[in-house]
């Protein structure tokens, strides 16, 4: 009789463990942030921190860490790493644009605006750097300053096929096909070897022919 009771207790204990494990697995399955989803970000962060241990003055690593922290909503940590990246590389356009985006998202719009205008003024005599800053703003989706940079770059270098091309893509993203067409046409006139611009013009209903050198380059196997 004693053995029978012990066996029932043992079976009940095993069943309880099975149900408990099933419940845990059920909760894990419903969770949108299980170990599989978190691991890549955690691994990347650990790798970047280890890189800073070897070389703290690496601005690119600080920028990448800032991006990770911002994605997690840790704005103070993100701001620290963006500012550290700029301390070691004051011309880091990606970090500049990211810092402006961070301040904007955190509600510090006046500070973000003042900082963005200061960065634009700093590159006021360099069209390539102005264009690079504009591209960085576009990547961070801080649209208020993208066009300002492109227009400044165009004033500095009105005969730049590259500037006209970027302005074409900007207006295309805003669904302003008329302005996009004009800038793509001017870019192609200045440099008829641009297969990508020719393709965009074709989609916009403008027939052009790419320079033979560009056609040969496009036909090369990747």
How is this fold's topology laid out?
Elements: H1 2-30, H2 35-54, H3 59-71, H4 75-88, H5 93-105, H6 109-122, H7 127-139, H8 143-156, H9 161-173, H10 177-190, H11 195-203, H12 212-219
Instruction: Please give the largest β-sheet.
Output: none
The amount of helix comes to: over 70%
Radius of gyration: 27 Å
* Large-scale geometry: elongated
The total of helices stands at 12
Q: What low-confidence regions span 5 or more consecutive residues with pLDDT below 50?
A: 1-38
The fraction of residues in strands falls at under 5%
- Overall mean pLDDT score? 83
**Which structural class matches the secondary elements?**
mainly alpha
Question: What's a concise summary of this model?
Answer:
This protein has helices at 2-30, 35-54, 59-71, 75-88, 93-105, 109-122, 127-139, 143-156, 161-173, 177-190, 195-203, 212-219. It has 222 residues and is mainly alpha-helical.
